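Lecture 7 notes: from sequence to structure.

We start with a single chain of 470 residues. Read the sequence below before looking at the structure.
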Amino acid sequence: MTMTATAQSTVLQELLEKLGPTAVLTGNNLPVRNHNDYSGMLPSRPLAVVRPSDTQGISTVMRLCNLHGIAVVPQGGLTGLCGGARAGEDQIALSMERMVGIEEIDPASATMTVRAGTPLETVQQAAADAGFFCPLDLGARGSCAIGGNLSTNAGGNRVIRYGMAREMVLGLEAVLADGTVVTSMNKMIKNNAGFDLKHLFIGSEGTLGIITRIVLKMFPKPASTMTAICAADDFETVLRLLSSARSELGPLLSAFEVMWPDYWTFATTQAPGVRNPFGHDAPPRAAYVLIEALGTDPTLDAPRFEAWLGRLLENGVIPDAAVAQSVADAGAFWGVRDACGELHTLWPRHMAFDIGLPVAAMDEYARRCKEKLAERVPGCLSVFYGHIGDGNMHIVAFLPGVATQPKDDVEEVVYELVRAYHGTVSAEHGIGTLKQRWLGHARTPEEIALMRTLKGALDPKNLLNPGKVV
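Now the structure, written as tokens:
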């Protein structure tokens, strides 16, 4: 038996003794779901799956693994798209599935204290039940864990109004690579007592520490929701519409989602259960915009929203618009935007991208990217859509009829153009493993060097989610 095998056996035995067989799964008891995240990479069977039920248990795992030199990969809901939660065969997968629950809701400070493994949808529902609103929202809400959302600094549908996930965090608790527990469960909006350490862990994808508990800032529950889909004949119209929405709707504006014609055609003609709000005989347009506004007074907000759209139509700014008249209508409108979830069945093994760009450059980028993909990979299909109001575009590319997708060629086209437009290779999904080689397209050598310095300082043995981000 090699030293590594001896160390592995020793760690697993000690973990079994301290945490019990319910928390330590090995051999035939390893769940298949822990072999991979949603990145599409090849599955990898970890050395063990460890499922602590509290912070002290996570600290024990890290202390023992640090002592024996065993790497640990944190796993939340396993909905990540970049390989950040995929554990290697000689690594322990640290599952947060038992670290769940709402610990406290404090109405006076408008905060919620929650465990990191709690599904986002559970957090949203708990806030709603208490008369508040958790604005963080993304398609995987029923499966993703709030700790994973913070570790990647998730964005989602309402960033234009509420900001990224980090904007919703007041305090947190994290376990370092050596098992040290750093507890900073701050509830105060104003707290300038030294470094704001929570930002070390938010967005670092579990490479600097494992988030265990969080104090979330809650918001007033909206009393009214207005939803519309607008057509645009060019991207200048989209920009005018965005500017008008910001000035006329102000803080009510909560979502501004743009769909290019290729995506719109896919969603309204191929995705099951999706209908075209303008009817199938409507003339094609250059872009389609889904707008959502959240207000506090139903008697005033809806008339204001409809009057604003009416003026845009009367003045010829937009050629057409459909306004949701019911919750079902709003759901159907969002169904067009969320039809991207059907791409995995219609375009199996497709390549998905999450980029950020200056908003004014997005249409030009989309045109050039589509052209270059067609030149570099003849026959390549591609669609473009995203949270354009906050500078985030999603791209899905697919080459039919081949056993292996031309990943390298497509990535080079997408990311070289991102660098040319001074954008980012990851707007909200993180870097993980899959985007690591492209990090230099969005960060300077000095920034990456500082990331490595922080990693070396907090995890000198490189045992905490090694090989991810940097």
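The chain has four domains: 3-98, 102-220, 224-341, 347-451. Keep this in mind for problem set 3.
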